[in-house]
Design goal:
This protein is α+β, with helices and mostly antiparallel strands. It contains 4 helices and 4 strands. The strands form 2 sheets. It has a two-stranded parallel sheet with strand order 1-4. A hairpin with a 6-residue loop joins β2 and β3.
């Protein structure tokens, strides 16, 4: 089973979401919008029911403005933003 299937009816945490390539961002967005996944090389579509929690130390809004992060995925993920200061502060 993949991460989405293992997180069924639970929460999937994606750390450093900003480092995901644009092509994978499109796949992730599709999974979030349609609540279904398709494994690589398979014709079978699997429904998934998950909550997604994502984190990044980079400024995603700046990455959107420079074209390095999908704007539609940004707004899909940015429902309840939580910002925490660094431990130095």
């Amino acid at each position: 089973k993949g991460y989405f299937e293992m997180a069924e009816q639970g929460t999937l945490f994606l750390d450093e979401i900003a480092d995901i390539p644009l092509s994978v961002q499109a796949t992730l967005l599709r999974a979030l919008e349609y609540k279904e996944i398709q494994k690589v090389g398979s014709d079978q579509v699997t429904k998934v029911d998950i909550r997604l929690l994502a984190a990044s130390h980079k400024n995603l809004k700046e990455l959107v403005e420079t074209g390095n992060f999908r704007e539609d995925l940004y707004y899909r993920l940015n429902v309840i933003p939580v910002q925490s200061p660094s431990l130095r502060e």
